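Predict the 3D structure for this chain.
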Amino acid sequence: MEITKARESLPQQNTTVAQMLIDRVAKTPDREAFRKPTAEGGWQSFTWKESFDEATLVAAGLLALDLKTEERVGIASNTRLEWVMCDLGIMLAGGATTTVYPSTGEDDVAYILSDADVVILFAEDETQVAKVRNTRDQLPDLRKVILIDGEGDGDWVISTAELHELGRKYLAEHPDGVNERSASISPDNLATLIYTSGTTGRPKGVELTHANWTYEGAAIDAVGILTPDDVQFLWLPLAHSFGKVLEAAQLQIGFATAVDGRVPKIVENLPVVQPTFMAGVPRIFEKVYAGAIKNGTAAGGVKAKIFNWAFEVGKREAAKRRAGQPYGGWQLNLANKLVFSKIHEKMGGNIRYFVSGSAALSGTIAEWFDAASLTILEGYGLTETSAATCIVRPDNIVFGTVGEPMAGTEIGIADDGEILVRGPGVMRGYRNLPDANAEVFEHGDGWFSTGDIGQIDEKGRVKITDRKKDLVKTSGGKYIAPSAIEGKFKAISGLAQALVVHANNRNFASALVALDPDATLVWAQENGMTATWQTGVGPATDEESAQFKAIAESDAMHTEISGKIEILNTELNKWETIKKFQILEAPLSIDTGELTPSLKVKRKVVEDKYRDILDAMYS
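Done. Predicted structure below.
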């Protein structure tokens, strides 16, 4: 098996996340730790000591509610500083944070909290509370809900202020209670439970220990690109492992973080926060790229020519820089002055690096940013590997690769091309799923099977080339199981031969709808359209094929399918919903290679055949 390792050595890692926080506060108590937006439109700053005091109060409140070590505490909230404080409080109290996307539907929330045996839930607002109130009969272990925004009911649902008051009383009676609990935590104790979608549509609980996160902090520190003087702008969902790993890095390194999960506010926030680095999913960089291209060239004429010339110069000189050759000169200086400086200003003016992860980043977009001296370091990892498994090093950039493994991690390529991972970041296992655990650890000796197909180049860099399993990821980093969605649609619409969901590395899900010939024959006759092919045979002549095409392209059929798509979308999570669709002009066929003999859809064949239609839906 071909294997690659990091060039850096792994520094000694801490014992637990709780101890990481304690040590950080001891080292830099008065340095800025966090900023959060205020109601007045400004930003409020907090030191590490202030943040630790808040987290300790949360931890004491949880202990007052009789939280035991490794008991699960859920957080259903958007990214905000309160999310971080809740999580750090849970860590100090020895609990295990169970993350819930605020956009998750009621049924899936009930499933996650039930499967995780969550005993306490932090809910952002009444919308999140309603989900568990409506399914309370399915959640016998959920003892208390803590409302981040709101007053609660004083009984099952309490406010954050009430939790703090419980914490103050607990500390008055047990001054060393939080310290004693923190000291009792083991590196192998469960720290985080993150549910990630599976091919069946039911999410799987990924168990990540304190040692997983302390490893990630040490490994990111070993890369050497971040310092205590950096300022991070954090908007990523903290319910996702990508957001969580940035928290571990901050505790290890000690930089400051401005936290605001409101995605529409990113452009507005960057010039104010003036961060030195920001992590994001490809969709964010796609939007910046598209917006800049539009603004730079929309006016046409001289302005557009200058914009395009600047990027030609930038790409040429950046290529020299990456190759270790002399670069720069008056043309690059002029391009910086006329074009690039304006882009930098919109990013706050201080960006040293962007980090992209959670889905594949277009090489074209990465090269464009690099030309403007806004380098994106692409990374790779899964929730099951605590997010950061590989990352591009600034001195070893090749667009289209995800870089080298993190220190302490090994990447192997199995005989079938599947990427395997071994190292301290690999999960403890899936919760309550022994068969799934056996499958992903089938190679033994600690190797985790990622489900991705890839290669290792001559410099040890990893390149992802395909996915092994039928699970796709949007450019926003959300997993979608197409087969589960397709199955739902076929149950809703009797007209569908197949619904081919397309979303991998796209910013939303689209679909190709293939009509069933027999069902379409009946529907056409009921709607006064000509359809003369035989049942069980389908369109066999040119005339019948033309009839089928006319029906498929009719306004009436579009309205029919659109209505069924709307029904489907009500049963899906927001990120799974079908935003655009195209009805194919002919049914899928075994003869054309689109279907197997058992009538299963060959997804890649269909996507390749209708690539132009798919691309047009994203243009």
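The first helix runs from residue 17 to 27.
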